[in-house]
Specification:
The chain is an alpha/beta fold. Helices cover 24% and strands 22% of the residues. The protein is built from ten helices and 14 strands. The strands form two sheets. Strands 7, 8, 9, 10, 11, 12, 13 and 14 form an eight-stranded mixed sheet that branches. Helix 3 crosses helix 4. The longest helix is centred in the last third of the chain and has 15 residues. One of its GO terms (molecular function) is RNA binding. This is tRNA (Cytosine(72)-C(5))-methyltransferase NSUN6 isoform X3. Belongs to the class I-like SAM-binding methyltransferase superfamily. RsmB/NOP family. Keywords: Acetylation, Methyltransferase, RNA-binding, S-adenosyl-L-methionine, Transferase.
């Protein structure tokens, strides 16, 4: 949960970062050197710096000033001088600006007990409990990077069984492997592989257990599908086009079809997104129930989010079995942290459960063989 700080004094010395880096800062990160686009002419290590994000990507690398559209992110202390930042040395990848006064009170947990903790948003924790993995099972995480849900699945199974994690981007797969190693989880096997091609079309069994896989190979499958990401917050700007948003539905259906084929009869399939559109959520559930009559929608435990959204032709009972999260507590907008210092811990927990990213969860069971 993020609370906006007020009355932060802007400094004359400025650093401009890219939009991706800016979003990370809004969510509690420090500014790392690769994210810095420009810095004031005489910036030295130890200076108090105002950090801005170039949301339109117009600032030139290495510029000494920038008058274009920029969003203030807060103040920090420079770890390096301007000359060091733009020296071109490839080994400079650490913290460039240590944020001391971010505009949102969302503290960084970077490297805090890394062998024990993996920080996730509330709905991302809930979705793994909804999947309810059991020791000894074979489970597929189809779109797994960076591995938060994957490692949570393995932990809930007490690291007993097999967790297959797929992602089609190699450096993201390496991140999954690193996280599994860091947390001491041996049940995870991560592969660089496109989930849409994970179903083996012939009947020759692969003795090495690598993708693609034979039909009905998995006890449970998590499809945390690629989506428009419109539930991510805080965010600086909404730049989605209609074409971009509508492009995800066919991909999600292709992945879902493969997941159904790979699931054993009696197995559980959980579909989730971090977006808020009807087309990527409830409409996908309605399509799945029409397309695969042997799938049944299931109630979810834990269920602490809201019900599904009307408009996709689902019954009221079906909508109650779905789970939506979002920033539903309107009075929190503009709230200053000082006004919450005397709040009861119970109230703070309630607010945290309500004021979160947009997220959607649906749980299915496969009643018979395809």
């Amino acid at each position: 949960m993020n609370f906006r700080r007020k009355n932060i004094k802007k400094q004359h010395c400025e650093v401009i970062v890219g939009a991706q880096c800016g979003n990370a800062v809004l969510r509690g990160a420090h500014v790392y050197v690769p994210g810095i686009v420009s810095a004031s002419k005489f910036m030295k290590a130890g200076d108090v710096i105002s950090v801005y994000s170039d949301i339109k990507g117009k600032c030139k690398k290495g510029a000494k000033e920038f008058d274009g559209t920029k969003v203030f992110l807060g103040n920090g202390i420079s770890e390096l001088s301007r000359k060091e930042i733009f020296s071109g040395l490839p080994e400079l990848k650490g913290i460039g600006i240590r944020m001391t006064e971010p505009i949102y009170l969302s503290p960084s947990f970077d490297n805090v007990l890394p062998s024990y903790l993996f920080l996730q948003n509330l709905p991302s924790v809930v979705v793994t409990h909804v999947l309810d993995p059991q020791p000894g099972e074979k489970i597929l995480d189809m779109c797994a990077a960076p591995g938060g849900k994957t490692t949570h699945i393995a932990a809930l199974m007490h690291d007993q069984g097999e967790v297959i994690a797929l992602d089609k981007i190699s450096n993201k797969v390496e991140k999954i492997k690193q996280n599994a190693l860091l947390l001491g989880l041996n049940s995870i096997k991560a592969f660089c592989f496109d989930g849409t091609k994970a179903l083996k079309l012939n009947t020759v069994k692969d003795a090495e257990g690598k993708p693609p896989f034979l039909p009905e190979s998995f006890d449970r499958i998590l499809l945390d599908a690629p989506c428009s990401g419109m539930g991510q917050r805080p965010n600086m700007a909404c730049s989605w086009t209609l074409k971009e948003v509508t492009s995800y539905q066919p991909l999600q259906r292709k992945l879902f079809t493969v997941a159904v084929e790979l699931l054993k009869p009696g197995g559980v399939l959980v579909y989730s997104t971090c977006t808020i559109t009807l087309a990527e959520n409830e409409e996908q559930v309605a399509w799945a129930l029409r397309t695969f009559p042997y799938l049944q929608l299931q109630p979810q435990e834990a269920h602490i989010g809201g019900e599904g959204m009307v408009g996709a032709g689902l019954s009221l009972e079906q909508l109650k079995q779905l789970q939506r999260f979002g920033p539903s507590v309107v009075p929190l907008r503009g709230t200053d942290i000082d006004s919450l210092r005397d709040a009861r811990i119970e109230d703070m927990i309630w607010l945290a459960n309500k004021d979160c990213i947009g997220f959607f969860i649906a749980k299915f069971i496969k009643c018979k063989s395809t």
